[in-house]
Amino acid sequence: MEQFAKKHDLNIDNWVEEKISSRKALKNRKLGELLEDLQENDILISCEISRLGRSLLEVMRILETCLSKNCQVWTLKENYRLGNDIQSKVLAFAFGLAAEIERNLISQRTKSSLANLKASGKKLGRPFSAESKKLKLSKNARRVRNLLAKGISKSQIAKILGVQRSTLRRFIDRML
């Protein structure tokens, strides 16, 4: 981007590198602050138009903000120079829409793939790892069996062992 600015004899007043997801609200992103600080005849340079927002409406709002302040939006990847003319607005709309469609397709493919994996018997999500509870009760497995054999209620056993009833119930269902 610096080479681009030098090549076009541009002075970079403010450099914003977004580290958080563009799914965050615009006001919670550095881009939101930058848009507030834009002044007439400024140029907002982005690597690509789809990086400005996650939805067509957000991209259009950002472009509208820039254009209402008489600022231009330039993109490096697509090499666009979007100003306050109708051609710029049509291009911005088209590429914002294309970016949104692409994100939706990626989401659909991901969901479909996860559904196929689940249907084939693959367990999804993070692995079960209640190690501390499992170990706590594993040490007492013999005691739990003895207490159950004596007819002591699960509620009482949970109190004796200092765990929640649900923890004891899961332990019994899985381990005993």
Short summary:
The chain is mostly helical and 176 residues long. It is built from 8 helices and 3 strands, in the order ααβαββααααα. Helix 3 (56-68) runs antiparallel to helix 4, helix 5 (131-138) crosses helix 8 and helix 7 (154-161) packs across helix 8 (165-175).
Ends distance: 63 Å
CATH topology of the largest domain: Rossmann fold
- In CATH, the architecture of the largest domain is 3-Layer(aba) Sandwich
Count of separate DSSP helical elements: 8
- Helix percent band: 55-70%
What is the mean pLDDT? 83
Residue stretches low in confidence (pLDDT < 50, at least 5 long) are none
Number of domains: 2
Overall geometric form: elongated
CATH C-level class of the largest domain:
Alpha Beta
Number of strands: 3
Radius of gyration: 29 Å
Beta-strand residue fraction: 5-15%
Q: Determine the oligomeric state from the structure.
A: single chain
Structural class: mainly alpha
What is the element layout, followed by pairings?
Blueprint: H1 2-7, H2 30-37, E1 43-46, H3 56-68, E2 72-75, E3 81-82, H4 86-119, H5 131-138, H6 141-149, H7 154-161, H8 165-175
Parallel strand pairs: 1-2
Antiparallel strand pairs: 2-3
Structural description of this entry:
By secondary structure, the chain is mainly alpha-helical. It has two domains: 2-119, Rossmann fold, CATH 3.40.50; 131-175. It is 55% helix and 6% strand. It has eight helices and three strands; from the N terminus they run H-H-E-H-E-E-H-H-H-H-H. The chain has helices at 2-7, 30-37, 56-68, 86-119, 131-138, 141-149, 154-161, 165-175, and strands at 43-46, 72-75, 81-82. Strands 1-2-3 form a three-stranded mixed sheet. Strand 1, helix 3 (56-68) and strand 2 (72-75) form a beta-alpha-beta unit. Helix 5 (131-138) packs across helix 8 and helix 7 crosses helix 8. The longest helix is centred in the middle third of the chain and has 34 residues, at 86-119. The N and C termini lie far apart (63 Å). The mean pLDDT is 83.
